[in-house]
Amino acid sequence: MTTTAAPDTRTAPLPLWRSAGAFITTLFNLFGAPQDLAADHTLTTKTHALILSWLRVAEAFLRHLLLIEASALDCGSCGAPALARRSFSEGGSSRHYARERKRVEFFANEPETWRVSFRCFPSSPACGGSVIGKANDEGGAPAQALDAFAPHRTLSHASRDSSPARGGAKFHSAWPIAERFEALLRVYNNPAPYARRLARRLRALPRLIATVLHKPTDFEHRLDEDTRVELDAHIDRAKPELDSS
């Protein structure tokens, strides 16, 4: 288990953070650590769907907690938004520089080196959406020992296969799920940078609050009632702080 104890400086109640930690521990017990999932390379459709159903609830739980953390932040402590990459001005116009393409390799036993993102603004309960921050920039969860190495991530994507005509089972790459799990751990271990970015974004666009608070289908079933009631009560108090419109 790679989660760390929630420090007293967090704004959201410690019992809620501990509940989040317990939920993440359940993910570990059910499916293994992120590096274990990555080492699997591929998952069957049934297993893939099961892990996703748990992971979406954990991500939603963390988004709720980040919103509570964000609501307590002073606007001045959120920092300035990132500037777009532009070149120096020539003749009154600016030009964008193309980014150099680099080949990046991921290894299953080195999750702290993965380039992962945590989705604070999901576009749907299933997948996708905007991302907020690169989780690897905020410090990763401690790596656990694992003997097997995973090949480059593109090999895992290529292993996704479906042959319904020949009666073959459909397989999904395990890498995206492993990366999302790793991102989840990094947010839990160090939520402050994510809360600052979220506070800045939500105060600029309060309408995004509803998107952050989206609840996946299994949210009501996977979290106990006491946790949900306490979470909703703190969310109700947090929303006015972020929505000054």
Q: Describe the largest sheet.
A: 2 strands, antiparallel
User: What's the total count of β strands?
Assistant: 4
- Which residue ranges are poorly predicted, with pLDDT under 50 across at least 5 consecutive positions? 82-90, 124-167
What proportion of the residues form beta strands (DSSP E)? Answer: under 5%
Whole-number mean pLDDT: 73
Compute the number of helices. Answer: 9
- Give the C-alpha Rg: 19 Å
Helix proportion of residues, in percent?
A: 40-55%
Textual characterization of the structure:
With 245 residues, the protein is mainly α. Helices cover 46% and strands 4% of the residues. The protein has helices spanning 14-31, 34-40, 45-71, 153-158, 175-189, 192-204, 209-212, 219-222, 225-242, and strands at residues 42-44, 121-122, 129-130, 171-173. A two-stranded antiparallel ribbon has the order 1-4.
List the helices and strands and how they pair.
Layout: H1 14-31, H2 34-40, E1 42-44, H3 45-71, E2 121-122, E3 129-130, H4 153-158, E4 171-173, H5 175-189, H6 192-204, H7 209-212, H8 219-222, H9 225-242
Antiparallel strand pairs: 1-4, 2-3
Helix pairs in contact: 1-3, 2-5, 3-5, 3-6, 3-9
Question: Keywords for this structure?
Answer:
mainly alpha; two-stranded antiparallel ribbon; about 240 residues
Brief characterization of the structure:
This protein has nine helices and four strands. It has helices at 14-31, 34-40, 45-71, 153-158, 175-189, 192-204, 209-212, 219-222, 225-242; strands at residues 42-44, 121-122, 129-130, 171-173.
